[in-house]
Specification:
- The chain has 7 helices and 3 strands, in the order αβββαααααα.
- It is mainly alpha-helical.
- The chain has one domain.
- Strands 1-3-2 form a 3-stranded mixed beta sheet, covered by helices on one side.
- α3 packs antiparallel against α4 and α3 crosses α6.
- The longest helix is centred in the middle third of the chain and has 21 residues.
Amino acid sequence: MQIDRSETALRSCGADIREGGARAYFSPSADYVQMPPFAAFKGTGAYLATLAHELTHWTGHKARLDRDQGGGFGSKSYAFEELVAEMGSAFVCARLGVAGEHIDSHAAYLASWLKCLREDKRAIFKAAALAQTAADQVLANAGLDQGAGEEAEEDERAAA
């Protein structure tokens, strides 16, 4: 089943992923990802996209890709890290062939960070490069080959 392969691929990165609570987040100080139970999400796509988003934050830890994660909510560095995480999630989901309702969420979430993009015309290119590096790190141990995303899409269509 595609969902099992996709979740296994995400979890192969080696992050400490904890389950429970009501919100998803990455704790840089304790270096773990917190995820609500699967039942809290509207569907598998939303769950996997959220996990990929938080794992993209995880890659930014000083022990890994060392992105600036110190800005508070509303700051330029916070907005930029959120942009990287959302793009990274979109890249990971595309690579895994995870399609569905989360695509609209990506678009809405990215639109909320347009201020960052308006202030720095090159920010989108920097964010995309960092997001791709993060996505590559999240999936580095997944054992995916070039056709894995296409195969996952076929499996998802067959299951529908």
